[in-house]
Amino acid sequence: MTEPAPYTSADIHLIQRIIPHRYPFLLIDKVRDIVPFKGAVGIKNVTFNEPHFQGHFPSEPIMPGVTIVEAMAQTSAVVVGISMNVVDRKLLTYFMGIDACKFRRKVVPGDVLELHVTVKRGGGKIWKFLGQAMVEGQLCAEAEFTAMMDLQD
């Protein structure tokens, strides 16, 4: 088994070296507290300039719940990329399931969304995570999700 990549945090440049997502669908700005095969905390600075706010909703911008879950998944993909040491390789991540998903608080422009993800099972192609999205210590959303990691090279 390959040793994990030697990173405990990832800025936007390292994130883009690990996951293929780009604007307008790259939903994390950095990842901190990375512990390979265990978890991390993703950071999303929510701004009014994001394209989904044009229609969700023009008079009351609210970050769509599905994008919050996607941001948790992108954070998880960075954890996998570091754990499997696949920086600068083509790693694709596919959702397989989302369970026990609940939304507790609106996420709005100006919020700093913290995406706490914990590995429940992983190490091969199939990984399972617990994610909790927080703003200022308040739980906004939570979900368990399963993903398949497909290394393309």
Number of helices: 2
Residue stretches low in confidence (pLDDT < 50, at least 5 long) are: none
Domain tally: 1
N- and C-termini, Cα separation: 17 Å
Task: Provide the CATH architecture.
Answer: Roll
Quote the beta fraction. 35-45%
Oligomer: single chain
What level of helicity do the residues show? 10-25%
CATH superfamily: Hotdog Thioesterase
Summed over residues and divided by their number, the pLDDT gives a mean of 96
> What overall geometry do the principal axes of the alpha carbons give?
globular
Radius of gyration: 15 Å
From the helix content, strand content and strand pairing, which structural class follows? Answer: alpha+beta
Question: What report would you give on this structure?
Answer:
The chain has a single domain, classed as Hotdog Thioesterase (Thiol Ester Dehydrase, Chain A), CATH 3.10.129.10. Helices cover 17% and strands 39% of the residues. The chain has helices at residues 12-18, 65-83; strands at residues 30-35, 39-45, 91-103, 112-121, 126-135, 138-151. The chain has a six-stranded antiparallel sheet with strand order 1-2-4-5-6-3, covered by helices on one side. A hairpin with a 4-residue loop joins strand 4 and strand 5.
How are the SSEs ordered, and which strands pair?
Elements: H1 12-18, E1 30-35, E2 39-45, H2 65-83, E3 91-103, E4 112-121, E5 126-135, E6 138-151
Antiparallel strand pairs: 1-2, 2-4, 3-6, 4-5, 5-6
